[in-house]
Amino acid sequence: MDQDTQAQTVTVTGTGWAEAVPDLMLVSVGIECSAASVAEAYAASGEALAAVGSVLRSRGVSPSDLRSTGLTVRADLAWRDGEGQKLVGYVASASLTVRLRDIGSAAATISEAVGAAGDVVRLNNLQLILSDESAVRAEARDAAWQDALRTAEQYAALASASLGRVLSVTDQHPPVGPVPLAGLQRASAIEGPAVEPGANRVEAAVSVTWELRH
User: Which of 7, 21, 116, 163 could potentially form a cystine with 55 if both were Cys, beta carbons 3.0 to 4.6 Å apart?
Assistant: First the structure.
């Protein structure tokens, strides 16, 4: 609290949050193929990735929601007693980032896509997000404002004063905490794990300075 004789003010920071069920799933699918030559490994990874992409498109995934995110070919080295490190082949890796907009059918879509390429497929990552968090962020800001107002009113009362004009408002950026992961509930072996979307939390913080009136 500023006790300056010219202008007495109170400055507080309020925090708030709001939650919403995510409506977009981001999935990273990886391919890793081994072969005796670079060309064979490269071709095998391309075929496997094409098979995965074909299944995804057949299940209604838009081409704009598919993105190739990596392609590497490396030597596959193994240690052999008495011989040291030897070249045994090559490994080609590729990955595909997918946006799934139908959370309800996401588990079945992922299962079919993974099955299309067999054991060379790797499921690297799964993330559930909000495609548009503007509305829930506005709710979080409302909660942060109310929190700041309640605190400022308490301080004003303790100082035998009341709140006057708002002199400044500063939008703060609260530290990013751990993002809640979706629950995975085991379904049938054919369908794979069912996805429980849970809820995503959006946080907000605001610093406000009020004039104090006596």
Answer: 116
User: Of 181, 3, 195, 9, nearest to 103 (Cα)?
Assistant: 195
Dihedral sign (CA 132, 134, 135, 136): positive
Residues 6 or more apart whose CB falls under 8 angstroms from that of 136 comprise: 18, 19, 20, 130, 200, 202
**Domain 9-21+133-213: top CATH class:** alpha beta
Of 42, 89, 104, 93, the closest CA to residue 70 belongs to: 93
Mean pLDDT by 10 residues, the chain (214 residues): 62 95 92 93 92 93 90 88 84 93 89 89 89 94 97 95 95 62 41 70 95 92
User: Which residues on neighbouring strands pair with residue 66, listed in sequence order?
Assistant: 98
* Nearest Cα to Cα of residue 122 among 91, 158, 89: 91
Angle at which helices 106-116 and 38-58 cross, to 10°? 150
Q: What is the pTM of this model?
A: 0.71
CATH 3.30.70.2970 positions along the chain are 24-129
The DSSP output letter for 173 is -
Please determine, looking at this structure, whether the domain spanning 24-129 carries the CATH number 3.40.50.720.
no
